[in-house]
Design a protein that fits this description.
312 residues; Sulfite Oxidase, Chain A, domain 2; five-stranded mixed sheet; 7 helices; 13 strands; binds the ligand Nc1nc2c(c(=O)[nH]1)N[C@H]1C(S)=C(S)[C@@H](COP(=O)(O)O)O[C@H]1N2; binds molybdenum atom
Length: 312
């Protein structure tokens, strides 16, 4: 099978599963047809890849300018594809995000195992433009395409014992050669409390800029939690497990003094080795102030009574 590239023509990529069929157009109506036309501007450096049917657009970044496609897809953290920011874009060709199976299991009444394209087709896709803040004090504004994780959780019907949601990245050193080195314990794992996972801002993303996710950004399915540091946004997910106990998380396991379970953006709590008060927006020269919860203060009620240090 040909190596999967984000700029593949529909006909070269996994057939059928990625094609927009006539009934998708009919279901989506005018909004769907418009969204297909929109990302089609193919100016140099613009979005490439298979278009996704976006049913709705929501901008939640206070009118701040989008980070260009080129930056979003060439300055990445994805240690399974190398530890330099430029590595993932160069090496993403080893990752084969189609076909791809995702399992949702654990404390649920209706566990699911299905193809990733069958999964997203259960939900109307939304474009959500979010500020994203990495723990390393850089940030971007990214138009993700995905659906609320809460919508999926409702379909699998959590049991009364479900308190947390655990996520797992693919473990396959042939596709993710960085897993041959023990920089982290593999596979990469992350977790949320179930109330965080069900919050309407929490997305499972399958695309950005209207196109399918490139490998370096966590194809075919990744988590996006805009009020938390970027490390919570686990990429290339194969399994989502609802649990009674708090699951282990990769960066917390490696350096518990530096990375908490919550990972909420908090300008007042410094990382032990640097300040979190300011950030460099990729593409800008002067640093800007970091906002509490990355500006998404509507989530503060989730943490009432919790020590702000524990937020990190
Ligand atoms: N599997 C996996 N997921 C991961 C990482 C990683 O190394 N491996 N890095 C995290 C970190 S630290 C950040 S900042 C974001 C970066 O996402 P982006 O490259 O799409 O901007 O991915 C997160 N998800
Ligand atoms: Mo990060």
């Amino acid at each position: 099978m040909a190596r999967w590239r984000p700029d593949m023509k529909e006909a070269e990529a996994t057939p059928e599963s990625l094609w927009l069929r006539r009934r998708d157009f009919l279901r989506l109506g005018a909004a769907g047809a418009l969204s297909l036309a929109w990302p089609g501007r193919s100016a140099a450096g613009g979005p490439v890849g298979v278009p996704l049917p976006v049913a709705k657009r929501v901008t939640l970044a206070g009118g701040e300018a989008l980070t260009p496609w080129d930056d979003v897809t060439s300055y990445n953290n994805f240690y399974e594809l190398g530890t330099d920011k430029s590595d993932p874009a160069v090496r993403a060709g080893t990752l084969r995000p189609r076909p791809w199976t995702v399992t949702i299991d654990g404390e649920v009444k209706r566990p699911l195992t299905l193809d990733v394209d069958a999964l997203w087709k259960r939900f109307p896709l939304e474009e959500r433009t979010y500020r994203m803040r990495c723990v390393e004090a850089w940030s971007m504004v990214i138009p993700w395409v995905g659906f609320p994780l809460g919508d999926l959780l409702r379909q699998v019907e959590p049991t009364s014992r479900a308190k947390f949601v655990a996520f797992q990245t693919l473990h396959d050193p042939a596709q993710l050669p960085g897993q041959r080195r023990a920089v982290l314990e593999w596979p990469y794992v992350e977790g949320l409390r179930i109330d965080e996972a069900s919050h309407p801002l929490t997305l499972l993303a399958v695309g950005l800029y209207g196109r399918v996710l490139p490998g370096q950004n966590g194809a075919p399915l990744r988590l996006v939690v805009p009020w938390k540091y970027g490390f919570k946004g686990v990429k290339s997910i194969v399994r989502i497990t609802l649990t009674e106990r708090q699951p282990p998380t990769s960066w917390n396991r490696l350096a518990p003094r530096e990375y908490g379970f919550h990972g909420n953006v908090n300008p007042e709590v410094d990382h032990p080795r640097w300040s979190q008060a300011r950030e460099r927006r990729i593409g800008e020269f002067l640093k800007r102030k970091t906002l509490p919860f990355n500006g998404y203060t509507e989530v503060a009620s989730l943490y009432a009574g919790l020590d702000p240090k524990a937020l990190y």
